[in-house]
Design a protein that fits this description.
This protein has a single domain, classed as Aminopeptidase, CATH 3.40.630. 25% of the residues lie in helices and 32% in strands. It contains four helices and seven strands, in the order βααβββαβαββ. It has a seven-stranded mixed β-sheet, sandwiched between helices. A hairpin with a 2-residue loop joins strand 6 and strand 7. The longest helix has 11 residues.
Length: 133
Protein backbone atom coordinates (compact mmCIF):
# COMPACT_ATOMS: atom_id res chain seq x y z
CA UNK A 1 0.00 0.00 0.00
CA UNK A 2 2.97 2.37 0.50
CA UNK A 3 3.26 2.62 -3.29
CA UNK A 4 0.11 4.76 -3.23
CA UNK A 5 1.87 7.73 -1.61
CA UNK A 6 5.30 9.33 -1.34
CA UNK A 7 7.06 11.57 1.19
CA UNK A 8 8.76 14.81 0.26
CA UNK A 9 10.84 17.26 2.30
CA UNK A 10 10.27 20.57 0.58
CA UNK A 11 8.68 23.65 2.09
CA UNK A 12 7.78 24.94 -1.38
CA UNK A 13 5.61 21.90 -2.17
CA UNK A 14 3.44 22.06 0.95
CA UNK A 15 -0.19 22.99 0.30
CA UNK A 16 -0.94 25.69 2.90
CA UNK A 17 -4.71 25.21 2.63
CA UNK A 18 -4.39 21.46 3.13
CA UNK A 19 -1.98 21.88 6.04
CA UNK A 20 -4.44 24.32 7.62
CA UNK A 21 -7.24 21.76 7.12
CA UNK A 22 -5.12 18.97 8.62
CA UNK A 23 -4.09 21.01 11.65
CA UNK A 24 -7.75 21.91 12.26
CA UNK A 25 -8.27 18.17 12.97
CA UNK A 26 -5.81 18.25 15.91
CA UNK A 27 -6.19 18.99 19.61
CA UNK A 28 -3.01 21.10 19.66
CA UNK A 29 -3.44 23.38 16.63
CA UNK A 30 -7.14 23.43 15.78
CA UNK A 31 -7.35 27.18 16.43
CA UNK A 32 -4.03 28.19 14.84
CA UNK A 33 -4.59 30.95 12.28
CA UNK A 34 -3.24 30.88 8.73
CA UNK A 35 -0.55 33.51 9.31
CA UNK A 36 0.86 31.58 12.27
CA UNK A 37 0.80 28.34 10.24
CA UNK A 38 2.60 30.01 7.34
CA UNK A 39 5.24 31.56 9.60
CA UNK A 40 5.83 28.26 11.42
CA UNK A 41 6.26 26.48 8.09
CA UNK A 42 8.64 29.17 6.77
CA UNK A 43 10.89 28.68 9.80
CA UNK A 44 10.91 24.87 9.85
CA UNK A 45 11.76 21.85 7.72
CA UNK A 46 8.44 20.60 6.37
CA UNK A 47 7.69 17.04 5.32
CA UNK A 48 4.59 16.09 3.38
CA UNK A 49 2.88 12.90 2.30
CA UNK A 50 1.33 13.04 -1.16
CA UNK A 51 -0.79 10.65 -3.22
CA UNK A 52 1.02 9.23 -6.26
CA UNK A 53 -2.00 9.45 -8.55
CA UNK A 54 -2.79 13.16 -8.14
CA UNK A 55 -0.10 14.64 -5.84
CA UNK A 56 -2.80 15.52 -3.28
CA UNK A 57 -1.28 16.19 0.16
CA UNK A 58 -2.49 13.69 2.78
CA UNK A 59 -0.01 14.22 5.62
CA UNK A 60 2.27 16.78 7.18
CA UNK A 61 5.06 17.03 9.74
CA UNK A 62 7.27 19.89 10.78
CA UNK A 63 10.79 19.88 12.25
CA UNK A 64 12.36 22.75 14.18
CA UNK A 65 16.16 22.55 14.35
CA UNK A 66 19.45 24.40 14.78
CA UNK A 67 21.01 21.95 12.25
CA UNK A 68 23.80 21.19 14.73
CA UNK A 69 22.62 19.68 18.01
CA UNK A 70 18.84 19.15 18.27
CA UNK A 71 15.66 18.79 16.30
CA UNK A 72 12.07 18.92 17.50
CA UNK A 73 9.31 17.07 15.63
CA UNK A 74 5.90 18.73 15.73
CA UNK A 75 2.58 19.05 13.91
CA UNK A 76 2.59 15.44 12.68
CA UNK A 77 -0.84 14.80 11.17
CA UNK A 78 -2.32 12.41 8.60
CA UNK A 79 -5.67 13.02 6.91
CA UNK A 80 -8.27 10.85 8.68
CA UNK A 81 -9.19 9.16 5.36
CA UNK A 82 -5.62 7.88 4.93
CA UNK A 83 -4.77 6.66 8.41
CA UNK A 84 -3.75 3.06 8.91
CA UNK A 85 -1.78 2.65 5.67
CA UNK A 86 1.64 3.66 7.03
CA UNK A 87 1.67 7.38 6.20
CA UNK A 88 2.61 8.48 9.73
CA UNK A 89 5.31 5.84 9.88
CA UNK A 90 6.71 6.97 6.53
CA UNK A 91 6.75 10.62 7.66
CA UNK A 92 8.68 9.79 10.85
CA UNK A 93 11.06 7.47 9.00
CA UNK A 94 11.79 10.26 6.49
CA UNK A 95 12.51 12.69 9.31
CA UNK A 96 14.72 10.36 11.33
CA UNK A 97 16.75 9.31 8.29
CA UNK A 98 17.06 12.77 6.69
CA UNK A 99 20.75 13.60 6.19
CA UNK A 100 20.26 17.14 7.54
CA UNK A 101 19.16 15.72 10.90
CA UNK A 102 21.69 12.92 11.38
CA UNK A 103 23.78 12.78 14.56
CA UNK A 104 21.47 15.16 16.43
CA UNK A 105 19.21 14.61 19.40
CA UNK A 106 15.52 14.37 18.44
CA UNK A 107 12.67 15.48 20.67
CA UNK A 108 8.89 15.62 20.57
CA UNK A 109 5.78 15.82 22.72
CA UNK A 110 2.82 13.51 22.24
CA UNK A 111 -0.21 12.49 24.26
CA UNK A 112 -1.15 9.40 22.31
CA UNK A 113 1.33 8.23 19.67
CA UNK A 114 4.17 6.84 21.81
CA UNK A 115 4.15 3.50 19.98
CA UNK A 116 4.74 5.14 16.61
CA UNK A 117 7.77 7.10 17.78
CA UNK A 118 9.23 4.21 19.80
CA UNK A 119 9.61 2.29 16.51
CA UNK A 120 12.17 4.93 15.52
CA UNK A 121 14.21 4.94 18.72
CA UNK A 122 12.37 7.57 20.75
CA UNK A 123 11.98 6.80 24.44
CA UNK A 124 9.32 8.13 26.76
CA UNK A 125 11.09 10.28 29.33
CA UNK A 126 8.32 11.94 31.32
CA UNK A 127 4.63 11.95 30.41
CA UNK A 128 4.32 13.36 26.92
CA UNK A 129 8.02 14.15 26.34
CA UNK A 130 10.04 11.75 24.23
CA UNK A 131 13.71 11.97 23.25
CA UNK A 132 16.13 10.17 20.91
CA UNK A 133 19.92 10.31 20.82
Amino acid sequence: MTNTFYIKQSNEDMDLEKVKELLAQTYWAKNRDEEKIRKSMDNSLCFGAFMNEDNKQIGFARVITDFATNYYICDVIVDEKYRGIGVGKALIESITTDSKLQDMMGMLLTKNAHGLYQQFGFKQVNGTYMGKR
